[in-house]
Amino acid sequence: MTVIDVSDATFQAEVIERSHEIPVVVDFWAEWCGPCRQLGPLIERAADAREGDVVLAKLDTDANQATAQQFGIQGIPAVKAFKDGKVVDEFVGAKPPPAVERFFDGIVPTEAERLASAGDEASLRRALELEPARADAAVPLAKMLLARGDREEALQIAERVPGNFQAEGLAARIRLEDRGEPDLAGAWQALDAGEHEKAIDVLIEALPTADGAKDDIRQAVVAILDELGVEHPVARDARRRLAAALY
Questions:
Q1: Is 99 labeled as catalytic in the residue annotation?
Q2: Same domain as 127, residue 101
Q3: 133 and 229 in one domain?
């Protein structure tokens, strides 16, 4: 079982930074705390049953008051789960075993999540069998299929994830390529080469004459902007230009 003792000095590295790789559950406790002694074995057993999927860290609040204060610990035992550097779930006080198990179940990755993270085609297909609307499996699988020419299946998979910008953009690209009008080959070549700004330019410039394809072009542009992120300078300018071209 992976159980580590952490302190004010090691919390950043052992909990915050590590949680970007694997969920970390922190048990805030103290030697004098009776409920802490009751809860401790329960969370250790729960972590042990999920070895490899979660790390359990224990912090003595008496000896590490700075971290306890930083995370607003007012009563113990207090348990916080960290993922990607942030608290994603927590509880205070002793809990019965079923509640502790449910807490850990909500933190560790599901089988579909693990398969999606694996990234190979067989794993992605299995992830979608388990959870058909998983965008993190559907989008990379659809991209694989498109790259090798299986366009129809790629479109079917992308269209199963409505509301996801990447999936909608990929589906829009396939429909636009299949229609062949307007001529957007330069946009796709640029996109595949990682030249996002050039791809956006070609797509937006095509909008004025793209009578029946405007929404697909919009979705293709939005997908690129989503990939770049809201703070990217190219994305900020492109959003303004896209709005002007549409409205």
A1: no
A2: no
A3: yes
